[in-house]
Every structure is written in structure tokens, then in C-alpha cells.
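Lab manual, section 2.4: Encoding a predicted structure.

Procedure: take the sequence of the chain (78 residues), apply the prediction step described in section 2.3, and record the output as C-alpha cells. A sample record is shown.
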Amino acid sequence: MPTITPLQVKLARTAVGLGVRELAQEAGVAPSTIQRFESGRGDMQSRTLDKVQQALEESGVIFIPADASGGPGVRMKD
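Recorded output:
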């Protein structure tokens, strides 16, 4: 599975109306971890990023990988 980007996390979080603290709580991680990743000041361990991705996907987000048509993105499930 491709790794999601900091921008995708921020876009997804905003799309589902979650603040940093709420997403951190849903994913079981520290809010500072989310803030640091979204701002590009640090990476997340793959297990932590998996938790964040799962929390966002359970909230209704689909992550779209980059392809020949454009860069990575997010969209909402129907």
C-alpha cells in the first residue's frame, strides 16, 4: 500500500471535520505527532501512520495515490 502524504492527512482530516486532537484521539496517537507530520517537520512510523489512515478511512475518506493524471489526493466515500 502506498504511503499517504502529510497533505493528504491534513486534507482528509479537514474534509471530515476533525481537529488535530480529535484525529489523534481516534487514532490513539499524540496530537503533536499529527501536527509535526502535517507540517512536514517529521515523519511517522509506519504503524502510527497506519493508525491515522485507518481512523480517517473509518470516518469516510478514500486516499487516492498519485498517477499519470495527477498527484495524490483524497475524496469522500459515497
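Check your result against the sample. Helices lie at 6-15, 20-27, 31-38, 46-58.
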